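Weekly puzzle thread! Below is a chain. First person to post its structure in token form gets bragging rights.
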Amino acid sequence: MKTLLIALLSFGGGFIGSMMSGGSMIIFSILTFAGLPIKEATGTLKVVIAALTFVSTLTYFKGGVLDVKLAPLLTISSIFGAFLGSSFFLCLSRELANFVAAALLLVGIYFTIRFSSDFGEEPKRKSRIEISIIGLLIGIYIGILGIASTLIVISALKVFFKLDMLKANGTAKMVIFLNNAIAAVNYGLQGSVDYSMMWLILIPVVAGSWLGAKSALKMGSKRLRVVFIIIGILTLLKILIQ
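Winning reply:
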């Protein structure tokens, strides 16, 4: 019964995480509830989220909503940013981290509501230097805070590049995937991954991820905006309550 419950919750985490965001909170709760120490729970989470976002990235790519011109450079520069950000992680208090995350998330929600037609114009192309700088800043945020990372990356893609919600979501998944994959390798080398728990939740998470991405593609950008706003507001409230 316990195994079935874990599988169902993992499937739900994969589904919602692939469709938009929030899967990591569900999966981390499963791991800590199972009694894993925080370090092992975090390491196992990184592996699972890397798998989740890998599946969703492929699905969004096949669906034609991953910005293949923007994603590679943005992702590579974000990895360097994440390395820099993690180096300064201990310099930031939890209260300040929550404040920054809440402020950035609020900006993203505002622009999503304010520009109801996804800005009403074609995606804005920037130079390689501009893309690299934005990617670096995104990576620094992921490295220092990591709070609501997917929502923040989607917000940045909408604000700076004026991507529609579906394409911003698909492109964000690639950024999150590579950052988590590198972190997963680090945790694995340190022996901080519980492989028995990982395999238990990995299969339902991957299945949920595939279905979540497929559902997002069918929903389209307009309906997905509503999902973003709802999850964004719920996440914002959670951050403010903490």
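Puzzle host: Confirmed. Bonus trivia for everyone else. Residues 195-241 form the longest helix (47 residues).
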